Amino acid sequence: MTVTGLPFDDFRVLLRELPGPDTAALVAARDRDRQLTKPPGALGRLEEIAMWLAAWTGRSPAVNRPLVAIFAGNHGVTKHGITPYPSSVTQQMVENFAAGGAAINQICATYDLGLKIFDLALDYPTGDITCEPALSERDCAATMAFGMEAIAGGTDLLCIGEMGIGNTTIAAAIHLALYGGTAEEWVGPGTGSEGEVLRRKIEAVNAAVEFHKDHLDDPLEIMRRLGGREIAAMAGAILAARMQKIPVLIDGYVATSAAALLKAANPSALDHCLIGHVSGEPGHLKSIEKLGKTPLLALGMRLGEGTGAALAAGIVKAAAACHSGMATFASAGVSNKE
Fold first, then answer.
1. pLDDT recorded at residue 168
2. Which of 57, 240, 260, 276 has the greatest number of C-beta atoms within 10 Å?
3. Quick check: 107 and 251 in contact, CB under 8 A?
4. Where is the active site (predicted)?
5. Any long-range contacts for 106-109 (C-beta under 8 Å, 24+ apart)?
6. Chain centroid to CA 258
């Protein structure tokens, strides 16, 4: 990445200078784990998750203020008929979130998770990516900055989600630009695209990547040209979480596309992140494999709105509770292995 004197410069610096894990906290957590009343490794990935929490929070594993952050944006590419739902559904679903009527509301209530919804200029869709950039560099950088500020107020586990009619088309275009292949490999049904609608979706992704092909060697350029406001905001939130020692759970295909852009800019950019679930969107597993991650859940979901990450937060909370609440061999009077 090169410094250009343009709005992305601050983010380029952040991406170069990301803080690493807290090794002292990790060592302390590993030492306690060896003393807990269980055989070593008996809790499998729960033990790994507890160590991850320690490394990226800098303290004993705990989840006290989990937050689901949903970023909502609209997209100019929907004018090509690439989804069976109108863009007005984005605003309607934001209102449904606020009223407590969506799936994410029920999951947050079940697992005692905080929920914040961010409306990203829904009355002003991004540019049509088949023939123009989605955003200017200034607007994209400002939206990333908004995403960074969105987690102000304190959290110790961030679940990233989104809402936006047409944004699986955006995610497919980003993945095609980053990893190559064919549009058919990355395009899935999204909200139920099939037949002629699915064909138009594939055509739109091909047209977008072809139109911007001379500018796809820089992940931040890919973000502004092919992305959307929710993509930029999620990327900003993931970055801010890294700077503030907040572990992150990433939701489905669209949220993973935002994360993939950061990893393309710095291979270590997602070390503080886990993938909450693998969605039913066909390109998501392939994307997760490119990131070198293993999802916590595989439930065939493809709803978005942070639902998979929120469900995974329950597992993370359980991992922290096991680590902190279990007795040690000494305190319980249980004989350890010889």
1. 97
2. 276
3. no
4. 305
5. 107/307, 107/310, 107/311, 108/68, 108/310
6. 6
DSSP SS3 for 223? helix
Write the burial class of residue 303 (CB in 10 Å: 0-12 exposed, 13-18 middle, 19+ buried). middle
Record the tokens describing residue 258, joined without a space.
């935002």
Q: How high is the pLDDT of residue 2? A: 46
CA distance 247 to 21: 11
Q: How far is CA 205 from CA 8, 80, 128, 228, in A?
A: 25, 11, 11, 14
Cβ proximity of 257 and 162 under 8 Å: no
- CA torsion sign, 303 to 100 to 166 to 224? negative
Q: Which residue has the tokens 């306690």?
A: 32
Query: What element of type H or E holds 246?
Result: none
The one-letter amino acid code at 220 reads L
Q: Do the Cβ atoms of 93 and 163 come closer than 8 Å?
A: yes
pLDDT at 290 over 80: yes
Which residues are marked as active site?
A: 305
User: Which band of pLDDT confidence, cut at 50, 70 and 90, is reported for residue 191?
Assistant: confident
- Percent of the chain exceeding pLDDT 70 equals 99
At 168, which amino acid appears?
T
And the tokens for 310? 């929120």
Task: Name which of 84, 226, 244, 60 is nearest 158 in CA terms.
Answer: 244
DSSP class of residue 80 equals G
Residue 226 near residue 134, CB atoms below 8 Å: yes
Q: DSSP secondary-structure letter at 36?
A: B
